[in-house]
Amino acid sequence: MINTAIWTPRVLATLRIVTALLFLEHATMKFFQFPAAIPGVPYPLPAIMLIAGAIEVVTSVLIAAGYHTRIAAFIASGEMAAAYFMAHATQGFWPALNMGEPAILFCFIFLYLAFAGAGAWALDNILRPASRQKAAV
């Protein structure tokens, strides 16, 4: 039988790290056109894309490191909700057709992290004693 008490924080940390790194990739596409430019986006970037990219860089690095995870994830979740309604929902109702599935998934994964916290392997765990973390919840 699997001991979920041991594995849950580790799997949560894995979800946090992988999601943050995938989110960072969206910022690198905006700023460095790496691994490719974002299709259909003009360069130089419009101001709203620069702001979105800056939010993505800062929040993804914080979330990946597990530093101030809850607030960074909450901000990233809000950005993805705004991105969905501003860019995808205007293209039609169905997320599979308006290409909004990634924005929805990022939004809800980050919302979950805002409530669940960083899990294992996080700077929050090193810099904030457990008693203070519980008080913050």
UniProtKB/TrEMBL annotation:
Keyword DNA repair recorded: no
One GO location term (cellular component): plasma membrane
Record membrane topology: Multi-pass membrane protein
Keywords: Cell membrane, Membrane, Transmembrane, Transmembrane helix
Primary site of residence: membrane
Cell compartments where the protein resides: Cell membrane
Similarity section: Belongs to the DoxX family.
Entry-linked Pfam families: DoxX
Name under which the protein is recorded: Putative oxidoreductase
Organism: Nitrospirillum amazonense
InterPro entries registered for this protein in UniProt: DoxX, DoxX-like_oxidoreductase
Residues annotated as transmembrane: 43-64, 71-91, 103-123
UniProt keyword Iron, yes or no: no
